[in-house]
């Protein structure tokens, strides 16, 4: 397996949660658009854990929504080599997609006491 070039994350819209194919296609489109300068005139392969995407270039145009067709057209300018990798074999990407923000409660009273006794902060305020 090749070394990943970049990992990109973006918030999902409600409609994208309903249509995973659209979401995966958009993710590939956005990633290629984001690092286009690194990809031009190079051969590369897109690996995805979403199997239907690997068949997207073989689908009929009539089966695609206009936006999906536009994304496929843009991706095809760079590569049509999209391969399926099962989630269990794509450990790093699978792990990154499941990372949740760690919530650490902030004790505002302790913060206020620390700020009140901080000589450096006291000098800045004066």
Walk me through what this model shows:
This protein has 126 residues and is mostly helical. Helices cover 46% and strands 5% of the residues. It has one domain. It has seven helices and two strands. It has a two-stranded parallel ribbon with strand order 1-2. Strand 1, helix 4 and strand 2 (82-84) form a beta-alpha-beta unit. The longest helix is centred in the first third of the chain and has 15 residues, at 20-34. It is elongated. The N and C termini lie far apart (58 Å).
In short:
The chain is mainly alpha-helical and 126 residues long. It is built from seven helices and two strands, in the order H-H-H-E-H-E-H-H-H.
Short key terms for the protein model shown above:
endonuclease activity; mainly alpha; DNA/RNA_pol_sf; hydrolase activity; nuclease; Reverse transcriptase RNase H-like domain-containing protein; 126 residues; two-stranded parallel sheet
Structure class: mainly alpha
Report helical residue fraction: 40-55%
Rg, nearest Å: 22 Å
Low-pLDDT runs: none
Largest beta-sheet characterization: 2 strands, parallel
Q: Number of helical runs? A: 7
